[in-house]
Automatic annotation (TrEMBL):
Its main location: membrane. Keywords: GTP-binding, Lipoprotein, Membrane, Nucleotide-binding, Prenylation. Signal peptide: none annotated. This is Ras-related protein Rab. One of its GO terms (biological process) is endosome to lysosome transport. Belongs to the small GTPase superfamily. Rab family. The chain holds residues 1 to 168 of 221 of the full protein. The small GTPases Rab are key regulators in vesicle trafficking. It comes from Collichthys lucidus (Big head croaker).
């Protein structure tokens, strides 16, 4: 059987320290550490899929800002820090201004409220309902995630990949 192999470029964007590197390491290597070096701006993930439900992954950790030819994005904030949530729309706007699908539509983006294991220090009362917020601002979905506890990382990325495969 012929296998149709695709290369998907997925961006992981959000403010400093929200957990971008941790999410990527958790997803790809199933590890978590308190001690990644800070990355400013954008992390970059590459994933190769065989769309017969078997998945092969490849990962490149690049700190350069590379929006070109991305087909999807995770926009991450830290649910214990309001400023990182306030920056979400800046990141989404940045994304939409720098990259679009070949058909001109916005690339699918999933909103991640990371560090949900810290919920007791969280902003829940101050946050708008993420369901409404994410729909209003054009995200294809949202998840409360923890790279530390491995909560919803796979679910968020599966949601993104499904949207990437369906919109193209
Ligand atoms: P980046 O700058 O967005 O890449 O953020 P990092 O991945 O470097 O994470 C910044 C800090 O937050 C590190 O100390 C991580 O260990 C911590 N961190 C990341 N994700 C989580 C999480 O889900 N829960 C908790 N408690 N800490 C996290
Ligand atoms: Mg980083």
């Amino acid at each position: 059987m012929m296998q149709h192999e695709r290369l998907l470029k997925v961006l992981v964007i959000g403010d400093l320290g929200v957990g971008k590197t941790s999410i990527i390491k958790r997803y790809v290597h199933q590890v978590f550490s308190q001690h990644y070096r800070a990355t400013i701006g954008v992390d970059f993930a590459l994933k190769v899929l065989n769309w017969d439900h078997r998945t092969v992954e490849r990962y490149g950790n690049m700190t350069r800002v590379y929006y070109r030819e991305a087909v999807g994005a995770l926009v991450v904030f830290d649910m214990t820090r309001l400023s990182t949530f306030q920056a979400v729309l800046k990141w989404k706007g940045d994304l939409d201004s720098k990259v679009a699908l070949s058909n001109g539509r916005a690339v699918p983006a999933v909103l991640l409220a990371n560090k949900c294991d810290q919920r007791r220090h969280g902003l829940c009362p101050k946050l708008p309902k993420l369901e409404n917020f994410s729909r209003e601002y054009g995200f294809v979905g949202w998840f409360e995630t923890s790279a530390k506890d491995n909560t919803n990382i796979d679910a968020a990325i599966t949601c993104l990949v499904k949207n990437i495969m369906y919109v193209e």
